[in-house]
Amino acid sequence: MTYLSFLIDSLPLLRRLATFALLPLALLLSGCNGGGGENGSCLSCHRGIEHASPAHPRCVSCHGGNERGRDKESAHRGMFALRNPSDPRSWEHSCGACHPWQLARVKGSLMQTNTGMIKNIQLTWEGEDGKLYGSRREDVYSPDGKERQLAAVTELDNISGELYRKFCSLCHVGIENRYAYDVGHSAGCAACHFPWNDTGTYAGGDLTMKGRGPASASHGMTGLPGNDVCFRCHNRSGRIALSYMGLNDGNTAQVPTRNGFPGPLLTSGSRSVTRITPDIHYAMGMDCIDCHTSRDIMGDGYAYENLYHQVEIRCEDCHGSGTELPRWREIVRENEAPVRESRQYRRQMRPGMRMIVTGKGRPYSNVFYENGLVRLVGKRSGRLYTSKVITGTPAHTVAGHGRLECYSCHSRAVVQCYGCHTNYDKSRTGRDFVKDMDTLGLFTESEDYRMLYPFPLALNQRGKISPVTPGCQTFVTVTEVDGRVSKEGYVTTFKGKQQLRFAPFYSHNTGVKAIGCGECHANPAFLGFGQHEVEGRNIAATMLCPKNEEKPLDGFQTMEGGKVRAFSAVTRENSRPLNEAEVMKVWRANLCIVCHTRPDDPIYRKELDYRALDDALHRRILAGGGTRVAR
Question: How many angstroms separate the CA atoms of 104 and 108, rounded?
């Protein structure tokens, strides 16, 4: 990237940052850049408190207040927020005063706006109304660089807005979650950089705060958050934090799993968590942030409407594809992003290093070429890893596999939650976490069944074949204020049609060894037919939808008389189930796979020629009179 192109890409953020140019120089000098000034009366009460970091020497720079006050009331007067100055209601005056670039990015990040989640809830209930809603009203920039204003979700005065505020809103950085064991977090920047313990209580050296909460476990800043921080939000829905760490809460509740007790682990919602094989990256000691860039997490200054637009990393970045090696870009200036971001890593990136680039062409800050190898340095651990490059290997150059996502073959498990029953009781009150008040209308959820394997495949938004998971299969029961049930098990609509839905999904449970070729090519469950029995040219579902006994609950396709019909939606633009021709092509390949079991077999270097089955050798083998040929 040239310096000019860097400026062009950054123009929207630069325009926003210009508003900070007139901040008083004294604030900057006394704040982040201050030289260890006295903290006055703060430490007379808060003896033993941990310093946030060497770059944050003065209490009032972050917290506000009066460092010369002689009593609690006068010292706390003028504080930005009593407990958490990074709360979005005050972060402009605290974190944003010294970190305007980072704050501008976070404001448009999906972890703050939740626009995609809110939009998909709308599609399930009343439908979109022409506005794009976020967790709060915010001026942002769309991906094409145009100014845009997000409407506050508090203005979405219908069931969609209420469901988000009462059921989904706690898993984003805009709101403090003090309501659940093991998954609590603060609001704003502190959600990641000042993590809580399981009980959300302070456990540091300040005796005036010891054991009190809600509060971070320590007043020391965590510059590079660990997996435990990610777990606090990503343990629900797709449960990617659980899968990554080799944990599963499926179908257990508090059912005893060992010696009559739940467990072996217990997490929020009184869920028993059992162990499964972890992701290979986790097993190697890697943190979430070792793969994910700061732009994935904090945003890049643009407000995307869906997660797959914001996340820039791909498996191919480090491992290459079947035909292309990992791409790289050399650091040419001492102020480039990899140099800046790696200052707190165990290994500093420097000009001249060849940095691996992401799917968006931006450099990683910890992945580089060294001595002909792709190397990754752990941001927190400092461990050096070598990434295996698979370009040109037989298993990754099989003809016809160009549309496969890496994780279609390398996923060990994909969390699938079937039959999501949402109960909306208008006669009971529920907590509106965004408005911070109790209002009429209580949402509760239950599920029918959850599984990890096998998992269905479909075309995703990139036009590639990937795993999909229910997203969501919502059956709604509504109880009116007078106790009357007005709807029972109603299937919600999607794009104006009553239908269950699946969504493309990466489970974060990757293995070195791919699943067997015969799995996808011979098991209809992998193509969306669910658990089944094959009867001639028919596929009969065995786990039936409670609203339609002719359709599977755990699938989105049926086959009758050899005709394939899809009946559920696969969400995300351009996504769809495999059509009949594609399904038949997948299954026909199994004729060859039963004998030609190795991916380096020459027949897989080009499209399969099924006319070869008519030659003398294959006729003898198929008739049972020859020897099985395997490579």
Answer: 7
